[in-house]
Amino acid sequence: xxxxxxxxxxxxxxxxxxxxxxxxxxxxxxxxxxxxxxxxxxxxxxxxxxxxxxxxxxxxxxxxxxxxxxxxxxxxxxxxxxxxxxxxxxxxxxxxxxxxxxxxxxxxxxxxxxxxxxxxxxxxxxxxxxxxxxxxxxxxxxxxxxxxxxxxxxxxxxxxxxxxxxxxxxxxxxxxxxxxxxxxxxxxxxxxxxxxxxxxxxxxxxxxxxxxxxxxxxxxxxxxxxxxxxxxxxxxxxxxxxxxxxxxxxxxxxxxxxxxxxxxxxxxxxxxxxxxxxxxxxxxxxxxxxxxxxxxxxxxxxxxxxxxxxxxxxxxxxxxxxxxxxxxxxxxxxxxxxxxxxxxxxxxxxxxxxxxxxxxxxxxxxxxxxxxxxxxxxxxxxxxxxxxxxxxxxxxxxxxxxxxxxxxxxxxxxxxxxxxxxxxxxxxxxxxxxxx
Length: 436
Hints:
Blueprint: H1 3-15, H2 18-23, H3 27-48, E1 58-63, H4 69-86, E2 94-99, H5 103-119, E3 125-130, H6 148-156, E4 168-172, E5 176-178, H7 184-187, E6 188-189, E7 192-198, H8 205-218, E8 232-235, H9 236-249, H10 255-262, H11 271-282, E9 287-292, H12 297-300, E10 325-327, H13 337-349, H14 384-387, H15 391-410, H16 417-429
Parallel strand pairs: 1-2, 1-4, 2-3, 7-9
Antiparallel strand pairs: 4-8, 5-10, 6-7
């Protein structure tokens, strides 16, 4: 049941005439209603949903198909192999969602659960199974350039909230690896969840398609490209509220019907950008926004309605925290060496230097690449820290970051290379060979 949005949202929508809102082609009316709803959200959420000073339970979430060896390889070699290093077990459980109708997925899920229980008893892993939509045409329709399996994962992205009871979700693609230790500071700015985004890719053809489809879904512009930043941290009920908003926008109780009106033909959709754009317009005060703007801000803001413009405090030329994960298959420069560097720096900060690090050149400057907003588009031989003359800033941030990690290690946080190697061994048991 949608308590936060259901009653309040229904009241507002009917007050301003839901039929008039969605059946008239009057953009000014769309934006006026959005501004009114945003003001209501701000008042409702700031008081009730701010995180506590400690770390609330966070679900590390991934959707995959266990029948595909490519997906199994990504999970073992990219996501889980690095999660056992850099994602603290104390943060919360990992949830893997597989295909309900697939015998191979059930077998893989059972084996995965068994492996984790036996070798990582301190980590909680839950495997869930998702049924196919009743209307298969939402996954396999005329003109689509993607496979039904790919479209299924896009569809599934709007239901992530159904698979955990934790208030915060760390949303991962199945081809993402951790590259540095996750800490509270990399997730939160004060009491608000950090969100990263970029305007700098908005001229790319597929990003323009995402923007067009996002506007179809929300009736409001896509604020920025949010697809390259993982984990994506979101409150669980933001997914719920976004889905309910889309249902009301298309005046239906059937999400398949709404999805079919959004994603069709040769359209392309980024669910990440849809959900986060929704959060910008309706739940902005719950999140801390860190947007990279390459255009002139005043000009870019013309595409956004009044009351929802990007302010200077919402932008960030250079990251205030290092990125902790990257898209493995899209990175144009090798980033995996930073896994080893981050491991060594963590133990060095704990006063526990590792023998395996002694023959390697390891320094904070070796991590400067992690200050790129977009780790998929790195300029060889250059980093934001050197190009923007922010070397001292980057050194100070990394020094604080690793001192915190070192302190956590002294208090019991586990960052063991043996765990990394254990996952490699488990991968071999299911005929998967991991590369560094």
